[in-house]
Specification:
This protein is of the alpha/beta class. It has helices at 3-21, 65-77, 95-104, 111-118, and strands at 25-34, 37-46, 52-57, 85-89, 107-110. The longest helix has 19 residues, at 3-21.
């Protein structure tokens, strides 16, 4: 595993721990399949009304439209409503990525925003 992958896994672990601190159940790196389509979901959060699907993006730069659109495409291919999913990054998102996510009802969070939303440090 390369250094970037290792950092990405550590970021996923950090995000998972934030949800666990709130008493939620977390499944990591879940392989999902629908028809002939397979994809790995970073985190599935349970213990709330509906499952929440989480994509974690650790980036040196901002997350762009292409990455957000790819995640939405994966969700739609798995027949998951993007409104039941979120994307979390350590950095930020481009304005185009934010607009697209809003159109698709996908919530975007920075690490700081997620911590504030969950009320954890």
């Amino acid at each position: 595993m390369g250094r970037n992958q290792e950092i990405g896994r550590e970021f996923e672990e950090l995000i998972a721990e934030l949800f666990k601190k709130k008493g939620l159940r977390v499944k990591r790196n879940v392989l999902m399949e629908r028809k002939n389509f397979k994809a790995e979901i970073d985190l599935i959060i349970r213990g709330i009304e509906e499952e929440c699907y989480v994509e974690c993006k650790y980036r040196k730069g901002v997350v762009d439209l292409e990455e957000v659109a790819k995640y939405v495409s994966v969700l739609e291919s798995l027949n998951i409503d993007p409104a039941r999913a979120i994307m979390v990054t350590n950095n930020d998102y481009t304005p185009r990525a934010k607009r697209y996510a809003q159109e698709k009802n996908l919530a975007l969070y920075t690490l700081k925003e997620l911590k504030k939303s969950l009320g954890v440090k």
